[in-house]
Amino acid sequence: MQPELLIVDSVQTVSSALSDGAPGQPSQVREVAGTLTRVAKERGLPVLLVGHVTKDGTIAGPRLLEHLVDVVCHFEGDRQTALRFIRAQKNRFGPTDEVGCFEMTGDGIAEVPDPSGLFLSRSSAPVSGTCVAIAMEGRRALPVEVQALIVATQAPQPRRVVNGVDASRVAMLLAVLERRCGLKLSSSDVYVSTVGGIRLQEPGADLAIALAIASAVKDQALPATLAAIGEISLAGEIRPVSSATQRAAEARRLGFSGVLDGEAGVLREAIRVAFAQTVPGDRVDVPAF
């Protein structure tokens, strides 16, 4: 009977009599992978090889293993959340910028078909220090809530604590906010985090991070229907980002009626506009910048 699929978990535990050495050694991994490749081609049999990775996330063992296969997929996640992302690092028959979202459950890994709401808080009322960024995970646009907390301190070295965002990028945004927008941040502890454990590593989240920090400084909530997309330069300019149309469309599909992007021009003006976009009937004082 011809099997429909062959899964080897893991390739480092299989050995071949055609090669010396214990399972997992480079010579054994090379021989086993080569044999499985020949069998797959001769029988038209799909083969999935599960392999170990190193501490930095690269495939353990000889690089030949990566060269032999057609597709290399990588599961990533952290122990603090049940979410897992799978990305294609190599694909001979398709794009490598796709991403799949899964959740660890008691019955195993389950697909999350629409993860749009996983990275937003459940607060029913707007809270100061929060803003939603529209991030790109592969070809998928995801809303991610950024939260900021500003606390006055007497310490000579204020704390800068981040979670889910790049610390050096946050430090740059703090400098731009203080120099270009007049926000006093050098004497305050700054805490910035994302919701849901996702990591924002792209510059397109700059504007949302800056707006969340400005909202925390003024202790004034931004509209819950506001999303922000844009990269911020050292001059305080808001630069457009890739896939801006797709991001804006996804934001509006999810109910974000206001989308701030590169059209705002400069950060100072974007902050003013963001605080001015209040719900009709509410009276809010727009902070002066």
From TrEMBL:
InterPro entries: P-loop_NTPase, RecA_ATP-bd, Ribosomal_Su5_D2-typ_SF, Ribsml_uS5_D2-typ_fold_subgr
Record Pfam families: ChlI
Signal peptide residues on this chain, from the entry's feature table: none
Domain (RecA family profile): residue spans on this chain: 1-53
Protein name: RecA family profile 1 domain-containing protein
Gene source species: Pseudolysinimonas kribbensis
